[in-house]
Amino acid sequence: MLRICVQENQGQFGLDVDINAPAGVTAIFGRSGSGKTTLVNAIAGLSRPDAGKIVVGDAVLFDSAARVNLPPPHRRVGYVFQDARLFPHMSVRRNLTYGGDHDAAHVIEILGLEPLLDRRPAGLSGGERQRVALGRALMCDPQILLMDEPLAALDAPRKAEILPYFERLRDETRVPIIYVSHDVSEVARLATTLVVLDEGKVAISGPVGQVLSSPDVVPLLGTRTAGAVIVTRVAGRLLDDDLTELQFSGGRLLMPGQLGEIGQLLRIRIPAQDVILAREAPTGMSALNVLPVTITEIRPGRGPGVAVGLRAGDDQLLARVTRRSAGRMELAVGQQIYAIIKATAVGPEDIGG
C-alpha cells in the first residue's frame, strides 16, 4: 500500500493530494501543469512538501508532524525519466550495475537485455535505452519505482516495442510503480489504479477500468480520448476473416488480426466516441459488435455532447453522443439499449496483455 497525503505551495500553484494506492501500477494522469511531476519529485525527495505524509508499505519517507524527511539516497526510490540518462562511455552491462546488481539475472531476463549487454548507449534504439534505464533502476533494489513519462520521447513503433516489457514488469515484480503519463492508451494498458489530477488536486481516482468508464472523467481527459477499459479472454479465431473472438462478461467482441493466445487475458480500450447507441437491435449494418447494455448514468457536457455510462454484464462502457441524439432517443438511466462497436475502432495501441 502506498499513502501520499501532501500539501506543497509553489507560488501561485499548490499541490494538495490524498492518495491511497494498492500494489501494482498507479498511473498519475493530468493536463500539463496539473502537478504530476511535482508529486513525483515529492515522493523521490527532490522537493520537500510543506506538510503531509508519504508512506510506502511500512517505510515512512516523509512525515511533517514527526519531522521525518529521508534524503533521496535513503528512500530506495528508482526513478526513470523521459530520457534514459545513460552513461555514454559505459557498456549496457556497466550502466545496469552502476547503482547495484540486485536480482540482476531476473532483471536482465524480464527486460530482454541479454543481447544488449556489451553494446554502448549510442548504438541502441530509444526503446532499448529506456529498457536499460528501467533495468538500472530495478537493480538498485527500490521499494518503489517512479516513471515520469518514460515513453513520451518515443515514436509509435518504439512504444509498441517496449510496452510488452512494461506489462511483464507489472505482472512479475512486487515493486509498486508510480507511472506519470498524458497518454490514455498507455494508462489503459498498464495501470492498476488511476489518479487524475486537476490544478494540483485529485479530481477522480480508483481502479483504472472504473475511472475510465465514468462519465465524470470526460471533461478531464477530453472528449476524443475518453473511453472504457475491459478485460477480455481470447476465445477463438476466425481465420478466413482475420479476426479474433474475445469474450467478456458482457458478451463477445470481434477484433481484427490474430491477437494473443487462446485463453490469454487482454485489456481492451474502447473509445467513447466510437460507441454508437441504438434503441433496438440493428440489422443490415457493417459493424460486427452489438452488445445489449443498460444505461447507468447520463452526464451532459459543456458543449453539444453527452457522456453515457453503460453496463455490459459486469463491465462498464462509455459512449459519447450529441445532446440532440440523446433527446431524440429519449435516453434515460435504467433503459436497456444496444451498444454498437466497430471492430476497427480499437487500435493496436489500445490492446494490451
From TrEMBL:
InterPro entries listed in its UniProt record: AAA+_ATPase, ABC_transporter-like_ATP-bd, ABC_transporter-like_CS, Mo/tungstate-bd_C_term_dom, ModC_ABC_ATP-bd, Molybdenum_import_ModC, Mop_domain, P-loop_NTPase
PROSITE patterns: ABC_TRANSPORTER_1, ABC_TRANSPORTER_2, MOP
A Gene Ontology molecular function term of the record: molybdate ion transmembrane transporter activity
Coiled-coil stretches noted in the UniProt entry, renumbered to this chain: none
Positions of the ABC transporter domain: 1-224
Organism domain of life: Bacteria
Cellular component aspect of the GO annotation: membrane
Keywords associated with the record: ATP-binding, Cell inner membrane, Cell membrane, Membrane, Molybdenum, Nucleotide-binding, Translocase, Transport
Record-linked Pfam families: ABC_tran, TOBE
Domain Mop: residue ranges: 284-350
SUPFAM superfamilies (alphabetical): MOP-like, P-loop containing nucleoside triphosphate hydrolases
Protein name in the entry: Molybdate transport system ATP-binding protein
Organism: Yoonia maritima
